[in-house]
Amino acid sequence: MLFPVKQNEEAILTDETLETLMQEEWLSEMGYLKEEYQKIPVPEQAQEAIQKGIQRAKEETEKVNRNVLFRKQKNKRYGSLAAFATLAATVCLFVLLQTNTQFAVSMAGIPVLKPVVEWMTGQEYHKDVYMDVKVAHLTGQIGNGLQDAIPLVELFEQDSDYVAVISAEIQRQLQQTDQKTELQPQFYEIAPNQCYYIDVDGNLVIVLEEYEMKPEFTIGTDVIASILK
Amino acid sequence: MEQEEKASYLQIEMLVEQTLMKDYTKLYRLAYQYVHNENDALDIVQESAYKAVKNCTRLQSPQYISTWLYRIVINESLSFLRKKRPEQVQWGEWDGETEDCYADLDLRHALMRLPEEEKTIVLLRFFEGLSFQQIAEILDENINTVKSRLYRSLQKLKQMLEEGGAVSCEAK
To answer: Which candidate from A13, A27, A45 shows the least CB-CB separation from B147?
Structure first.
């Protein structure tokens, strides 16, 4: 806001009162001042200054766009390969889960994977089941495929405010980074069905596509441990 | 969808550029009215054009472009003055060959003594001939607030004039 708002100042004024005041004789002098104002000489450089300002803004915008384009092309190039790998990994996982109960139990021991396993096997596994199996490389390969399989909401306890918890964490991360805020849209909170995937270390990674420079936010398991299913 | 967004973005950007080029004398004079110095006014105008194009996605509708440009110039001018003279923002002296005293001198000096926000409204209404609706858009204020602020400003001016020529020629 340009100026501070003053309270109650529009209490009594009517349009007629203002109109009458504006018609008063002494204000006719305003005409001279207006003429003088309109005669303020405008130097030739004024047009140039405007053009320079426009140019500067356009160059900066192009620079940003080039970076975004580069990122998009890169994604496209690896996109189909990643999709294939994801599909293959998902099929592997599915087969393993169906045929190997031990494996299913151990996979269910990883907090983020538990609902995946339960969904694929149609069985429930409980938190107290603990197996020391190193599956980090496998969870990594699952990658982007998971986000289509299970909505984000399914990862969390019913009635848990996971939107607020994750949003707060992203806010925190945004404040730490030196991302220029004017280039970024304001972040309020994630969508209930926000895109996500699980990274190599089994962490939840939220994808905010509108943050073109750095759209991925890793949410530490400690942050969401209490509300995970 | 993305294509559409991009098209409308480019359209708005183009409209902003066109309006800048069309209104540049107005924008320059407005800036000059605050800083009373050619180079400073040129800097303000350039910076305003930069910000306008840079932030044109924030415009909700093309119909607001010209009032929005006024607003950017006013904000730039005020922040320039604040940086230059942080202790207080002054209207600045009217310069030019005005040594010979016209009948309007008293009103002019009275205008100089108004607080910044009131002077801006008087200027937009009387010098730029803008409607209350437009002024309200520029200042991001309620239209009634603009009206009552103008009323208050005019009453102050009148009072200053009635008190016997607030300032006269020797003030120059």
So the answer is: A13
Taking the CA of residue A29 and the nearest CA in chain B, the distance in Å comes to 5
Q: Which chain A residue has the Cα nearest residue B79? A: A2
Please state, in angstroms and rounded to a whole number, the distance separating the CA atoms of residues A153 and A161. 10
Q: List beta partners, residue A156.
A: A228
Chain B contacts of A5, Cβ < 8 Å? 141, 145
The verdict on a CB contact (< 8 Å) between A182 and B29 is no
* pTM higher than 0.80: no
Q: How far is CA B158 from the centre of its chain?
A: 22
Token pair 């001042």 is found at A33
Kindly report, residue by residue over B151-172, the tens digit of the pLDDT.
999 999 988 888 764 444 444 3
Q: Which residues contact B141 (CB under 8 A, 6 or more apart)?
A: A1, A2, A3, A5, B135, B149
